[in-house]
Specification:
By secondary structure, this protein is mostly beta strands. It contains no helices and 13 strands.
Length: 155
């Protein structure tokens, strides 16, 4: 779906819905207590993560390159984004790029990209809990199950 930027509201589950003239994925999220939104949009053949102020200012492309990144979610302090990317999928042999995603951290300015998981699996919709854990779904065991991990971060 395509939307016009200009408003944000919470739905009945207290999730933020933000509109902008790009395709907003499920991973679109308003930084807790901050006035920035993380979202994905297509750049060439790949989906990339961006941030933007809720007033439509300071558009920043966080990821780039020949991989698709999706489902950005803010850390509780707003210092990091967690997301999925299919970076490095080619090394797993005869598989489709859409069959492999792993979890990565990155600063909102695009620095300090750090891979948290590695393997020939799908990981989807990582979400950073207020407890400091990252919750995600993965098909690592053959079917999608819920997992959590706690990153060790430098402030």
């Amino acid at each position: 779906a395509f939307f016009l930027f200009g408003s944000a509201h919470r739905d009945r589950d207290r999730h933020w819905a933000v509109v902008h003239q790009v395709h907003l994925h499920v991973g679109t999220e308003l930084a807790r207590g901050y006035l920035r939104v993380a979202f994905t949009r297509q750049v060439g053949s790949y989906w990339q993560v961006f941030t933007i102020g809720v007033e439509g200012d300071e558009l920043t492309q966080v990821t780039d390159g020949e991989s698709t990144c999706d489902f950005p979610s803010w850390s509780p302090d707003g210092a990091w984004l967690v997301m999925t990317c299919n970076t490095g999928w080619q090394r797993f042999g005869d598989v489709d790029a859409g069959a492999i995603d792993n979890v990565f951290l990155v600063r909102p300015d695009g620095t300090e990209l750090t891979q948290l998981t590695d393997g020939a699996r799908r990981v989807t919709e990582p979400s950073w809990g207020v407890d400091g854990w990252i919750y995600l779904a993965s098909d690592a065991a053959g079917s999608f199950d819920l997992y959590r991990l706690r990153p060790r971060l430098e402030r």
